[in-house]
Amino acid sequence: MNNVISRDGTGIGYRQLGNGPGLVILHGAMESSRSHLQLAEELADSFRVYLPDRRGRGGSGPYGKDHGIRKDVEDLEAILAQTGARFVFGVSSGAIIALRAAMELPAIQKAAIFEPPLSVNGSVSTDFMPRFRKEIAEGNVSSALVTGMKGAQMGPPIFNSLPRWLLKRLTEMMMASEDKKAQDGDDTFRKLAPTLDYDFRLVEEMSDSLDRFKAMPSETLLLGGGKSPAYLKTALDALEKILPHVRRVEFPGLGHGASGNADRGGRPERVAPELRRFFNSPGA
């Protein structure tokens, strides 16, 4: 692990592996720097890959009360300044940060974006957030995770047909099993649950903000899975229309977790070639 100090004094931890041009991978919700280790290993022959822990996770400091996307961009800026990296790959909520950063930080030459949950004319609902925040505040983590999964439409198809009490019980069993196997420093679902609030805040803050990306200076690769929720495809469709230097790739048969480790349903060996091709190609 390495560490850099962000503008407000918060420490941001990151892993690094490989050799070559610098590439930062920003993970999404309910993830940490470990969540894309297998993707980093696939790319390590071509790039020096940096895997930050976003705030509230692993080697990084906590969120502050005034946290917003500006802080996330500053955290990424600090990593770019320390490492000299010029490429960024953002996943889900991390993709929202990568998009905003690519608009504002000249250091970013190319940005790959995987399914940012950007709301387009209300396409992403956050109506479930008051309930989620109440359950987290009460320490009812299993209920909060069920609320978040249903609200974000991230569960398998059977998720919507099961009664809530059963989903809560299954979630409790899953967390108990994970807690038993966890080693020191592991970011378990129980530990990560409170960070969901800040991911949903990103969605709320960046709602209906597509017009700001019309002047995107960097080349952009849009990535998505064929089995992902419709609202994520809506965001990619809208971005494809307005970004000036853009290419898009869809992975048939894969979902929102395609870029992550295999134990979370990812297929990094399918995502890595597209990233390698994009970041290795000559600039426009």
Automatic annotation (TrEMBL):
InterPro entries for the chain: AB_hydrolase_1, AB_hydrolase_fold, Carboxylesterase_BioH
Q: Which UniProt keywords apply?
A: Hydrolase
Q: Which domain of life is it from?
A: Bacteria
Which residue ranges does the record assign to the AB hydrolase-1 domain?
Answer: 23-272
Give the residue ranges for region: Disordered: 254-284
GO molecular-function terms, A-Z: hydrolase activity
Which residue ranges have biased composition labelled Basic and acidic residues? Answer: 264-277
Q: What is this protein called?
A: Alpha/beta hydrolase
The organism is Cohnella zeiphila
